[in-house]
Every structure is written in structure tokens, then in C-alpha cells.
């Protein structure tokens, strides 16, 4: 007599063509009953009641189960998943996509920090560039990827007009070398800085894929990615292509910005991308008399970090030097001043939260513990 386990084994061959997993793994099989006379009833939960793939999935179930010895008839009933069941299914599907990601030119040991924001205008690109330069000044091997395909600004912030080209032998794209780091940006292939890239959907994902699979990144300690604002195609593609990516969320102090930033953090977690911390930008302005003014409110960074249960990596003040440095192509962290000091401190904190892979060995951890003990003794 056919058993329930026999039927479940057969159903593992029925795959949802959109999600890529089998119906058992995806939690779509809700009920299996086997009658003594060989009649089988299977309850399937589909993502929505009128699922376009309903006929294909049920036909496949019929064929596979009917082929089992001892089965005399197959009856299939379908229902729609609950919201919680759909969320669980999508979580499984995203995890599968990450596990089967196409190999890239980024080493699995490279620490990947995706600098993201819920909306534009919070200074995310300036922070990305300055964090990358600060990490390079620590002696780290750093790559900087401008994934803000439409709104590329890193070439100007870093002061380079170098054009990208491919190596004659490997056919891999060679990144621009600027301020001690490797830079890839659509701004280095566009006709000019004023050229509008009118790309949509799949083209954006394919551009990111090329930047990860067809660029000679070499050995990196860190890859900093300047993400486009929001929760669109590039963000979802990154979570599939770089399983080791971790997100740093940039916000400004006001509640409205903090609430918008929460959305991009929610997207990261739904895509199994850990959020490593929060950076609050434009935290205050300090006048020449030494008095601080909270021009955009207070507390947004702390609140967001608390809600996400992650550290507040840094608070960056409003500093006119940031604008001037970006326009001149020399990131402010290369000089002095309140913003430069805060950004350098944020980069140092980031290396504590995301130590280079070489320092994550047992020996590396012991060395850090000894350093901490020495500092404690000296204090």
C-alpha cells in the first residue's frame, strides 16, 4: 500500500516554476490522505486563489502521484495561502535564491557593506565614498561600487574621470584606481556626467550583475556599495547575488526620515540581509561660537537603531566642508574638521562590527582580546 511518505517523496519532484523550489519545501502541501483502496487526497495551498500556474502545478501533482504503485485515484483541492504562509514561502524562496547565487568576482571572504537609505537626499553617497576612503586609509583593500545606476555621483565626489576598460586577456573590466581604492560606476561609462541613463527593471539588475561578475575586483577586505534609495530592483538583486552582503542604513534625525529608513531595513531582513548598524547624517550644525543646533530634529538615528536592535555606528554633523570636498573630488575624510573626524570614527566602528575575514580567525580574535586587555591595563 502506498504511504504518505511515498507521496511526499513524489511531490518533491513538483516545482513551482516561478519560485524554483518544490511544493513540499515551499510549504504548499497542506494535507495528504491515503484511503485503504488507494485513493489519495492532496490539499495544496497556492499563493493566491487564482494563481496563473495552478493548472500546471496540479497537473504535475496528478501525473507524479498517479505513477506510484497502489494509487487508484488522485483528488486535489486547492486553497489560498494566508498572509503568514505567503510571507514564510517568500522567505524560503529568497533564501534558496541566495544559496544558488551565481558565482561573482567578489571573494566570499570579502566583507560587503551595502550603504542604503529609504529615500534620497540624506547624504548616502557622500557617506559611502568617505567610509570607503577612510577604510583604505586604514590600510584595507577596498572596492567601491556605485550601484545607484541612475543617480551616479561617486566619480565627482572622488574626483575621477577615468574611463573603464577591459583587460585584453581576461576580458574583465578594470576598476578605476582613486584615493587608494577600486571604483566601479556607470558614471565612468556614460557619455558625460549630464547623460541620463534611462534604464528600467531588468536592465538595472543586469548592470549590477555585470559589476559583480565581470569586474576584476581582486582580493578585497571590503566592498562598499552605494545603493540607490528605496526598495527596488537593485536592492532585491543584490541580496540574491552577494549572500555575504550586510546593510548599513543611513538616516537623518527627523522622525519622517527614520520611518522611511525602516522600510529599507525591513526589505533587507526579508531578503536575509543582516542590518549591521545605523548612521545618522546631518545630526547637528555647530556655529562659530561652539553652540550646536539640531536643524533637522533629534533622536532619529538612536530610535531607528533601537528599533532594529543594532548599533548606532556614527552621527555625522552638518559641515560645509563636506560639500566643498565633494565638489573638488577630495572626500572630506582626507582632511580635518568635525565631519571628517566623525566619518573616520564611523569607519573605525564599522571595522569592529565587520572585521576583515583574516581577523575573524581564532588567532585574530585572540590578538584583538590581547589588545583590549593591554588597553584596559594601560587605562
What can you tell me about this protein's structure?
- There is one protein chain.
- With 379 residues, the chain is of the alpha/beta class.
- It is 39% helix and 21% strand.
- It has twelve helices and 14 strands.
- The protein has helices at 4-11, 54-66, 83-99, 124-137, 154-158, 201-213, 233-241, 255-270, 300-308, 320-328, 338-353, 362-378, and strands at 29-34, 39-46, 73-80, 111-116, 142-146, 165-166, 173-174, 176-178, 181-185, 222-226, 245-251, 275-286, 292-293, 312-318.
- Strands 4, 5, 8, 9, 10, 11, 12, 13 and 14 form a nine-stranded mixed β-sheet that branches. It has a three-stranded mixed β-sheet with strand order 1-2-3, covered by helices on one side.
- The radius of gyration is 25 Å and the shape is elongated.
- It starts with a helix and ends with a helix.
Summarize the structure.
The protein has 379 residues and is an alpha/beta fold. It contains twelve helices and 14 strands. The protein starts with a helix and ends with a helix.
The largest pleated sheet is described as: 9 strands, mixed
* Amount of beta strand: 15-25%
Q: What share of residues is helical?
A: 25-40%
| CA-CA gap between termini | 76 Å
Order of helices and strands: HEEHEHEHEHEEEEHEHEHEEHEHHH
Low-confidence stretches: none
Number of domains: 2
Number of strands: 14
CATH class of the largest domain: Alpha Beta
Provide mean pLDDT, rounded.
85
Question: How many alpha or pi helices?
Answer: 12
- Tell me what the CATH architecture of the largest domain is: 3-Layer(aba) Sandwich
Amino acid at each position: 500500500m502506498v504511504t504518505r511518505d511515498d507521496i511526499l517523496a513524489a511531490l518533491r519532484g513538483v516545482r513551482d516554476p516561478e519560485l524554483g523550489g518544490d511544493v513540499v519545501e515551499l510549504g504548499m502541501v497542506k494535507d495528504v490522505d491515503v484511503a485503504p483502496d488507494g485513493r489519495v487526497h492532496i490539499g495544496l495551498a497556492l499563493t493566491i486563489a487564482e494563481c496563473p500556474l495552478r493548472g500546471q502545478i496540479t497537473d504535475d501533482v496528478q501525473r507524479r502521484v498517479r505513477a506510484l504503485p497502489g494509487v487508484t485515484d488522485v483528488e486535489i483541492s486547492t486553497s489560498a495561502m494566508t498572509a503568514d504562509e505567503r510571507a514564510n514561502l517568500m522567505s524560503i524562496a529568497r533564501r534558496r535564491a541566495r544559496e544558488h547565487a551565481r558565482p561573482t568576482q567578489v571573494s566570499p571572504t570579502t566583507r560587503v557593506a551595502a550603504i542604503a537609505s529609504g529615500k534620497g537626499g540624506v547624504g548616502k553617497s557622500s557617506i559611502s565614498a568617505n567610509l570607503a576612503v577612510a577604510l583604505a586609509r586604514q590600510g584595507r583593500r577596498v572596492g567601491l561600487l556605485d550601484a545607484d545606476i541612475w543617480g551616479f555621483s561617486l566619480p565627482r565626489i572622488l574626483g575621477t574621470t577615468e574611463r573603464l576598460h577591459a583587460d585584453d586577456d581576461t576580458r574583465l573590466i578594470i576598476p578605476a584606481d582613486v584615493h587608494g581604492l577600486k571604483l566601479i560606476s556607470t558614471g565612468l561609462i556614460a557619455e558625460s556626467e549630464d547623460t541620463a541613463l534611462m534604464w528600467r527593471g531588468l536592465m538595472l539588475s543586469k548592470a549590477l550583475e555585470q559589476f559583480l561578475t565581470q569586474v576584476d575586483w581582486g582580493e578585497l577586505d571590503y566592498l562598499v556599495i552605494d545603493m540607490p534609495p528605496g526598495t527596488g530592483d537593485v536592492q532585491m538583486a543584490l541580496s540574491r547575488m552577494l549572500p555575504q552582503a550586510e546593510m548599513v542604513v543611513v538616516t537623518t534625525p527627523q522622525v519622517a526620515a527614520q520611518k522611511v529608513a525602516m522600510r529599507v531595513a525591513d526589505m533587507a531582513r526579508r531578503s536575509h540581509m543582516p542590518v549591521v548598524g545605523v548612521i545618522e547624517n546631518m545630526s547637528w550644525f555647530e556655529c562659530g561660537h561652539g553652540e550646536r543646533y539640531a536643524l533637522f530634529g533629534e533622536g532619529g538615528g538612536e530610535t531607528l537603531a533601537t528599533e532594529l536592535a543594532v548599533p548606532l555606528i556614527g552621527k555625522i554633523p552638518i559641515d560645509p566642508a563636506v560639500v566643498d570636498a565633494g565638489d573638488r573630488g577630495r572626500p572630506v575624510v582626507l582632511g580635518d574638521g568635525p565631519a571628517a573626524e566623525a566619518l573616520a570614527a564611523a569607519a573605525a566602528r564599522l571595522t569592529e562590527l565587520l572585521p576583515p575575514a583574516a581577523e575573524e580567525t581564532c588567532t585574530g580574535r585572540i590578538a584583538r582580546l590581547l589588545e583590549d586587555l593591554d588597553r584596559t591595563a594601560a587605562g
